[in-house]
Specification:
- The structure is a homodimer.
- By secondary structure, chain A is mainly α.
- Chain A contains 8 helices and 2 strands, in the order H-H-H-E-E-H-H-H-H-H.
- Chain A has a two-stranded antiparallel ribbon.
- In chain A, helix 1 crosses helix 4 and helix 7 packs across helix 8.
- The longest helix of chain A has 35 residues.
- Chain B binds a DNA duplex through helix 2 and helix 3.
Chain lengths: 201, 201
DNA sequence: CTTAGCCATTCCACTTGTGGCATGCATCGT
DNA sequence: ACGATGCATGCCACAAGTGGAATGGCTAAG
């Protein structure tokens, strides 16, 4: 479902071949998914076609393998939009791409839907910070093999600080986006929005 | 292999039941993996036992379900250490837990091994930044359905900036850790290391 | 001329992960 | 007294992802 959502999102913007989609995942979409296999893309495409979410037409390429251009169907569009604007439950790791994937297709949302999504993410992460930030991080030890406690402590401390800083920065940035979306006039165009974003930092 | 590596790492520090391991994944290990299912933990444990990487002993708990305490075998320790210090290829997304998972078990590494790992990560990410930072981010458009270009542009710009800032901060923090590891005297103890870390910020 | 890389798809055998169900006792708060 | 939560395991069907091989033409650089 997750790869499929991405593929549907791309196809909702323009028809593509399997190869194109793989290229998207390796370039523009590289933060949405790590190391996606060709085979996985083609298999998803096949499954989606069987479900009636996409259809393909064949492009002959003299000599070479025929290329199949996939386009999204109305049904596929419905499925995609249902996923995009449907319920979102934040994964444990804020670094996971679930939220970012939805953002990548923000253009298909209304400003209200986008704000709702952001609010869900924000409350979930704030709650997480509140629950864990000052929690004891020591772990029970009883190590048999060679284990460098000093090294482990250093790295654990660094990891915790790095994680805390990362999530704090993340929350701050998200709040900024939220602010811009709330403050911007209803009919603001892209250049003005970008200016607002710059000022809000 | 990935869940198994984590479980082996935990078991390398102390014996645990399946339930304990799941709890670890939900608390201390929450940044290593999102939403792990109980069934997945028990299945991995079963498979690892079949491979001879772990063994279990049964704890009777009057009335309640017996608890199985798993401990790592020598073979399991070898497998774990091979994974930990073996070749690491950075995933596309720097937010993926692969690197962090290894760091979580830094205590089982020597300082040199840890530094090698950090150097691999650092070069890979620097290279990524160099390749993509100033790349054109515009995507070909040909959207049929309702698509708010202005909203999409705003969010895309925000995402890019957020991503850039996140990876920059990440690189900086990693460099700091690297510095501390390089500069610290061979026999430095945890409190001194933490002081160095604090000063290095 | 040759090698490398891009374009393009498909198949296959696995391995992993998801989500839910079933069981059953103990403890703690209301 | 009741319900939630924690402890503890296991089974199942199904969905998704991994990693590699096979095929074959095109183009550009060395």
């Amino acid at each position: 479902m997750k790869l499929e959502s991405i593929l549907l999102g791309v196809l909702a913007r323009h028809p593509s071949t399997g190869y194109d989609l793989k290229k998207y995942l390796d370039t523009h979409g590289r933060f949405l998914r790590s190391n996606t296999q060709m085979s996985q893309v083609y298999r998803s495409l096949g499954k989606m076609e069987a479900s009636g979410w996409v259809i393909h037409t064949v492009q002959q390429r003299a000599g070479a393998t025929d290329a199949k251009t996939y386009r999204i169907t109305d049904e596929g569009m419905t499925v995609f939009l249902d996923w995009l604007t449907g319920p979102y439950s934040p994964p444990t790791r804020f670094q996971d791409p679930d939220f970012g994937t939805r953002l990548a297709f923000a253009g298909f949302m209304t400003r209200e839907q986008l704000l709702r999504l952001i609010d869900i993410e924000l409350t979930a992460r704030h709650e997480q910070v509140a629950r864990y930030r000052f929690r004891d991080r020591r772990e029970a030890v009883d190590t048999s093999a060679a284990f460098d406690e000093d090294l482990a402590t250093l790295v654990a401390e660094w990891s915790h600080e790095a994680g805390a800083q990362a999530i704090d920065a993340y929350l701050e940035r998200l709040e900024t986006l939220r602010r811009v979306l709330l403050d911007a006039p209803e009919n603001a165009k892209a250049p003005d929005l970008l200016l607002l974003l710059r000022d809000a930092r």
